[in-house]
Design brief:
alpha/beta, Aldehyde Dehydrogenase, Chain A, domain 1, Aldehyde Dehydrogenase, Chain A, domain 2, seven-stranded mixed β-sheet, six-stranded mixed β-sheet, globular
């Protein structure tokens, strides 16, 4: 048996183990076997990382000209493009995501660093038309300081880029906490960062558990901003933690995204979009379109076509070129899915395909594409985020009815509308309470398009031109332009 590789953390430009020498084992979802170990960071390690970031902020990075910072961002982009296959393989082994998707995504993520590099020297201040004589008032945007970026396992390169790139562009330094479920990808990314020659301490990557690592990071008095992507329950702890250091917080949380297909929709297009939205990445996406509402006129026809399509999805090893859907990331997800499916069936839900863990492997976390017919959307699979390839299907009659149904959920991240009626698409998309609406398409990203939700899906936007300002603070400066001294404030009359 070959030796299990060990990966170190990247702190202050050096590769280090935990001060306690404790390790975390990371499992390969394909076979449920330990394939690597990483350090289990504690409070001491977190303090070291944050103080290193603060030192880099004070001594070099915040005062570096934006164009110089942009050069490093472009170098990171270059490293990503040159190492797509390597990063893709690491992420596939670590997460179970398909290799053809991870290597493609690694290449595209380079665009985010180029995009924010281009914005680095474009953020301007203002001159305030102040109501005081002989006074000139200006505003400038200044960097915040140390940013804590907490990254989930499912889209590590993307969800790092939308935090790291704007933060660096604006002069901040960053401590990245990788997910304990799949931490190796970001440690490999740190090796590429090191190759750029970026000053020590500007980017730090640590690995550890929620306790003590996550808590120590989000309560540290030098952390000025927390950018978190993950589940609502963890988010509540982070918000509480931030009260100790009064840091700014942005939250990109879960979703239970609704999709409506009207009777005039292009069915082939809708079928492809829905399949990509819920079965792509094995449904392990926060924007997964997991609630499907079909107009009653096309309900039976469309559902049968969708079932046929789902049954043909090939489940298999994520490195295999013909695999269309790989394993889930963890046994916990598998258990959650099975529990919710059972409860749904007990309450009247009908399995149309899938519904039981796959027999292709007795080790990996494989679950087939599953479609469940639900009488209403209050059944467990239709109401709860499952983070798996589980689609709940329901029927609707009118436009107003489906809008009400789509909005009747605690989440508000993404949504989809399929119709050939332009006016209807505009009415419905406007009425849906979600941060993102896809019309006649689904599951797309771009560095230019803001991403984020409302309600229990969090607050704040990532990507897009406005998001770069979230990593700055406004400084107001008053200039006295008079040659005369100020009036004595204690002289009356």
């Amino acid at each position: 048996m070959s030796e299990i590789p060990h990966f170190k953390m990247f702190i202050n430009g050096e590769w280090v183990n935990s001060s306690s020498n404790k390790k975390i084992e990371t499992l390969n979802p394909e076979n449920n076997e330990v394939w690597a170990t990483v350090p289990e960071a504690n409070e001491t390690d977190v303090d070291h990382a944050v103080k290193s970031a603060q030192k880099a902020f004070d001594n070099s990075w915040s005062t570096l000209h934006p164009r110089e910072r942009a050069k490093y961002l472009r170098l990171i982009a270059e490293q990503l493009r040159n190492n797509t296959e390597h990063l893709g393989k690491i992420e596939t082994v670590d997460t179970g995501k398909l290799y053809r998707e991870t290597k493609t995504q690694a290449n595209y993520i380079a665009e985010y660093y180029d995009y924010f590099a281009g914005l680095a020297d474009k953020v301007e201040g203002t001159v305030v038309p102040i109501d005081k004589p002989d006074m000139q008032v200006t505003t400038t945007r200044i960097p915040i300081g140390v940013v804590a970026a907490i990254i989930p396992w499912n889209s590590q390169m993307l969800l790092t880029a939308v935090k790291l790139a704007p933060a660096l562009a604006m002069g901040n330094t960053v401590v990245i906490k990788a997910s304990e479920l799949a931490p190796v990808t970001l440690l490999e990314f740190a090796k590429l960062v090191e190759k750029t020659g970026i000053p020590k301490g500007v980017i730090n990557v640590i690995t550890g558990l929620g306790e003590p690592c996550g808590k120590a990071l989000t309560t540290h008095d030098l952390v000025e901003r927390i950018a978190f992507t993950g589940g609502p329950e963890t988010a509540k702890h982070i918000v509480k933690n931030s009260s100790e250091n009064l840091s700014q917080v942005s939250l990109e949380l879960g979703g239970k995204s609704p999709v409506a297909v009207f009777d005039d929709a292009d069915q082939e297009n809708a079928l492809n979009g829905i399949t990509a939205g819920i079965f792509g990445a094995s449904g392990q996406s926060c924007i997964a379109g997991s609630r499907l509402y079909l107009h009653e006129k096309i309900y039976d026809e469309f559902l049968n076509k969708l079932i046929d399509k789902a049954k043909k999805i090939k489940l298999g090893g994520p490195m295999e070129p013909d695999t269309q859907m790989g394993p889930l990331n963890s046994y916990k997800q598998l258990e959650t899915i099975e529990k919710n499916i059972k409860a749904t069936i007990d309450q009247g839900g009908k399995i149309k395909c899938g519904g039981e863990r796959s027999s292709i492997s007795n080790k990996g976390y494989y679950f087939p594409a599953t479609i469940i017919e639900c009488e209403n959307h209050n059944l467990p699979t239709a109401e709860n985020e499952l983070f798996g390839p589980i689609l709940s299907v329901m029927k609707f009659k009118t436009e107003s009815e489906v809008i009400k149904l789509m909005n009747d959920n605690k989440y508000g991240l993404s949504s989809g509308v399929y119709t050939s009626n332009l006016a209807r698409s505009m009415r419905v998309s406007k009425s849906i309470r979600a941060g993102i609406v896809f019309v006649n398409t689904y599951r797309l990203i771009s560095p230019m398009a803001p991403f984020g939700g409302i309600k229990d899906s969090g607050y704040g936007k990532e990507a897009g031109i406005e998001s770069i300002k979230d990593y700055t603070r406004i400084k107001t400066t008053w200039y006295n332009s008079s040659d005369k001294p100020m009036a004595d404030p204690f002289t009356m009359g």
